[in-house]
Amino acid sequence: MSNVVQLPRWIDVGVLPLLNLLLALVVSALLVLAIGENPVEVVEILLYGAFGYDEAWGYTLYYTTNFVFTGLSFAVAFHCGLFNIGAEGQAYVGGLGVTLAALYLDFLPFPLMLVVGMMAAAIFGAAWAYIPAYLQARRGSHIVITTIMFNFIASSLMVYLLVNVLRPQGSMTPESEQIAEHLRLPFIHDMAAAFGIDMASSPLNLSFVYAIAASILVWMFIWHTRWGYAIRTVGANAVAATYGGIDPGRYIIIAMMISGALASFMALNEVMGVQHRLLIDFTAGYGFVGIAVALMGRNHPFGIFLAALLFGMLYQGGAELSFEIPTISNDMVVVIQGLVILFTGAMEHMFRPRVTKIYTAWRLRRDRMEAA
Amino acid sequence: MHQMHGTGETGAVQPAIELRGIDKRFGAVHANKEIDLKVDKGTIHGIVGENGAGKSTLMSILYGFYQADGGTIHVDGKLCDIKGSEDAIAAGIGMVHQHFMLVETFSVLENVILGVEGGAVLRDGVDKARVELERLEREYSLDIDPDAIVGDLSVGLQQRVEILKALYRGAEILILDEPTGVLTPQEADHLFRILATLKEQGKTVVLITHKLREIMAATDNVSVMRQGAMVADRKTAQTSPEELSELMVGRRVLLRLEKGEANPGATVLQVNDLCVDNAQGVRKVKNASFTVRAGEIVGIAGVSGNGQSELLEALGGIRSASEGSVLLNDQDVTPGKGVDAAELRKRGVAHVPEDRHRMAMVTGFTAKEAAILGYEDDPAYNNSILLDWHAISKATANMMLEFDVRPDDPDLKAANFSGGNQQKLVLAREIMRDPELLLVGQPTRGVDIGAIEFIHKRIVAMRDAGKAVLLVSVELDEIMSLADRILVMCDGVIIGEVSAAEANERVLGLMMAGVDPNEAKAVEGQA
Lengths: 372, 527
Prior knowledge:
GO molecular function (chain A): transmembrane transporter activity
Radius of gyration of chain A: 22 Å
Distance between the termini of chain A: 26 Å
InterPro entries (chain A): ABC_transp_permease
Keywords (chain A): Cell membrane, Membrane, Transmembrane, Transmembrane helix
CATH topology of the largest domain in chain B: Rossmann fold
Distance between the termini of chain B: 36 Å
Oligomer: heterodimer
CATH superfamily of the largest domain in chain B: P-loop containing nucleotide triphosphate hydrolases
Structural class of chain B: alpha/beta
Membrane topology (chain A): Multi-pass membrane protein
Helix content of chain B: 25-40%
Subcellular location (chain A): Cell membrane
């Protein structure tokens, strides 16, 4: 007897995340009260900092770009039943790919570099994801363990490369040479200026457009191609996949490599778009936050985009907050972000039973009234 | 304890269980509608009904897993408020579940006292329990070594442990939920003898089953449920399987399938000395050799877990062969290197697997997504890059029309269809490909009677269309009514072959227990 009521989509993807978010904000407000500040004022500053002026918008969307890529990365692997916790390392190594392409192929014209840079990032990121994927698919090593270890390996490898190989002679900082000016992704404000539109300058660049395109492509891939179908089948029921002639191992590897490539596109934003060189630890935790973004967005590109926007807002508004209210330190902002991740990601099922109960009771009453 | 050898006609005696107006809804589903039920003391009372008729819900309410929305439960004439299984046990109700609730690594004794150990020091409880357990075993002739490890026992003996567990907790009323699903016919007969002993000792037994043969053989009274309502109470002696099945379905049903003579043609599938190992490297199929010809149904009978699942999965390309070979129309298709499920499908092998939820479909998918599993690469379902959902919807709607799948909504989640309709969708997906060879495992497991009739007809239609059919089922009735030739498997070995004409339950049952076919027939001759 099926006593599991299926919630309609608008509750599943709308009401539940909002409830979780609200709870995170309530707990945050209590914290703010505890250190003697006014929560209403804090929210005002947060929102103003994220959306209140042109430049803020640019920063918010720049952060959003990173979250979209890492969120999509997690989602693709998740649809295959894999918990890819290694976006951080994959993006980091992807950054190496972009940097090497830009430094050693600097004779290429910009339009070609757009493609080559993206491919270099994708190849490096996918290759880094390939090893754990292979180990999972063919040797049964758990992907969570291997990807988290590969984050550490990536980190050490990059430190070595930046200090010993990529560091220009005579420089004291562990970072690569600057990539040639003509190979950098244009800033949105520069692009707007070319059309005669005046925009405040911000790090927002062309990769934001990539992020939107990637969201659409991932959506098409997952739900409208046979490979996406195969990946979802493997993720939902690997035995059924084998029965259908879909080799789970093969699609585990494919899904992980796509996941790694998507994570590495974050490097397009950071390396080709903003920093213009390879910096140590440029991934700065975006890979991990991508997990929360994807879970909050129900692993759907549209949801991921909204969740990424929320986190972009928290990052940008949070920076403003710690600047405006000195008692709210940067650590406090991190705590608030952590609460949002905790409630929307890790504890996302907390309200589900209660909401299901309320919904069922409501529907029952409606059915009875209609019957009467 | 011996005062009442109930015949069920003593009006003055309070019934052991009386349910009055039990009502239960799950959301929009009305699972139990104002159910009244009287079970007389010292009788075996059968409850039959199709899947989803509400039998399990009713028993779960009686055992305290669910709370009824309305109605009352009376045990021995006293109103009982059963809020959990502890209350049920306190009222003297014991339950033997379809899937045993045993710790396999514990001994029989340890399993029996689990949860009623009595005190912090295990030793005292164990000693007392041993005495009590031995008394129970004597009283009900339930012989079993208290120190045997449960995992080493056969399924029939494990079931005995479950019964002992209930008796140890002082059960006067024993509910058995589909108890014979995992037993050989001989083990089932033994179980019914145990139930008869329990009855003699004054216990009351409620037997839930969908097998009418067992109802007729073992019960005193029978109640029939249909679509959540109790539709009839009968004395078993005064009813017939035909009447019961009609009551269950609500219309007349053909219990015995009418089919013409088989017209076997060329050999389609030839299996030579096939060996299959499971994931742990244990050999599950040992040197199986047989053929299936066009236009015949070959049935494989056996108690669940004797290698027939692995055999079917190997032939479907899901498991690799360790040794031996498989030929399809004289071409080598030995499962393993290069030959997987996808390759076999291309060569005209359709496979309806034994386990619908584990293997045949992804229950979280929509019906149209489920309808292309295994065929998602088909050009008819694809534009150059993207899946053609429009074409897939149309194909699914066609399948639903052809196989009477209800509701006929390709966008509904597979999980929201009833078992019978899920199975019809899977059959439609496989049969409508017009395969050369159809592999079918447990085609009617968890399927209601009306759908069983339909599914059996479609399988016979495949045969009559000149296709080869290999049928694996643990339901002997199904094998005997569908198959033209019957192979019996025991412990991975094909013990022997019986033609449908000379097959009967006793011979097959003995062979399923590993007795050589000639010997089995000899034993049958003496009987």
